[in-house]
Amino acid sequence: MISAIDLSDHRDEGPITKISRHPIWSMVAAFGCYFCVYGFRKPFTAGLYLDQFWYGIPWKSVLISSQIAGYMLSKWCGIFVVSGITWEKRARAILLSVFVAEIALLGFGVTPKPWNILFLVMNGLPLGMIFGYIQGFLEGKKNTELYIAALGSSFILADGVSKSTGTWLLSLQMSENWMPFMAGLLFTIPLVLFVWMLTRIPKPSKEEIDDRSARSPMNSSDRILVINQLWPGILCISLLYLCASLLRGIRSDFAPEIWKYLGFLSLPQTYSQTEMWVTMGILGINGSLVVLKNNYQAFFTSIFAITCGFALMVIAGVWGRAYMDPFWLIVLTGFGIYLPYLTITTSVFERMIAITRHKANIGFLMYIVDSIGYLGYNILLLTIGFIFPSINIPELFFIWIKGMGVIGLVFCLLAIIYFFKKLKG
Taking a C-beta distance cutoff of 8 angstroms, is the pair 170, 176 a contact? Predict the structure, then answer.
C-alpha cells in the first residue's frame, strides 16, 4: 500500500510541481485569479443608468453603495476569517465565494428594481475576502513583494477590462440588469484554471521563514497583541489607505462620468488602455522591492514610495487639467492613487511582520485598513446621494485629489517618525 507521504513525494517529482516553484507561476496564478474575480464584481459600473433615481438618489450611486455595503461587511468579517483560515481551505473558499457572487448576479438580473439591490449586497459579501485568500498563498517568501505586486496590479488592469467587457455587452443590446451576470460567465472557466494554479504554489521554505517569519493562522490573543503594540502605526497607515481608497473608488466607479467631464470620448478599449500603463508602472515599482533584502530598508523605501504617490496626487490636482491631455491625466491620477494603495498591501505589512516577528499574517492587517477604506467610501457615497444628490462627482474628484494628497503627505511624515522610533527600538 502506498502511503500518503509516498503519494506526496511522487507528486513533487512531477513536471507541474517543478514549474510551479518558479516565481512566474505564482505571479501568473495570483494575477490571473484576481483579474477574473473582477469580472464578477465591476462590469455593472459600465452602465450609466441615465435618468434613473430612487428617492431622488441617482440609481447608479444606489447600486454602487449596495455592492460596497456587502463588500465592506466582508472586509470586517475578513479580519477574523482571512487571518484564521488554513492554507488547505483557501482554494475551496475562493471557488465557493465566486459561485455565491455569480448566483447573486443572476438574482440581480431576474429581480425587479429596486429589490435587486439586495442581490448586489449579496454579490459583494463573498467577493471581499478573496484577495486575502489569494494573498495567503504568497506571503512570507523572498519574492512576496513581486507576487503581491502582480496580485495588486491585476485589479488595476481588471478594473478597466471589466468595464470594457460590460460596455461591449451593452453594445450588443444587452440590458444593464443582465449584463453583469453574462460578464461573470465569461470569466468562470479561466478563474477555475488560475485557482488550480494557486493550489500548486509551494509553502514558504525554512530559509524564507527564518528571513520573513512564519505566517500562521491567528487567534484572538494574537490579534490583540499586535494591535496593542503597533496601534499608532497601524492607525497612520489606515488613514493613508483611507485617503487613497476614497479617490480610487470615485475614479473607478465613476470613470465614464469623469471621461465625459474631461471632454474625452471613452470607448470600450479606453478603460483598458489607461489602466495598462498604470499597471506596468505599479508592478515595476512594487515588484522591484524584492531586491532589498534588508527588511528595514525595504520598509522605509515603501513609505517613501507612498509619499511619492501622494505628491503625484497634488500635481495631478493642481496642474493636471490645465496642462495635460485627458488620457495621460487619468493615467497620472491612477499612478498617484495606486502607488500608496498597493504599496501598503504589497510591502509595508509584509516587511513590518518580518521586522517585529509577531505571530501574524498580512491578511489580518490588510483587512483592518481595507474595512476602514470601504466604510469611508460607503459613507461618502451615501452622503453624496442623500445630502448632495446633484453634486458634480467628477469635479469633486479633482478637488479632493489635491486635498487628499496634502493630507496624505502629512500622515506619511507622522508614519516615518513613529516607525523609525518603534522599529529601531
Answer: yes
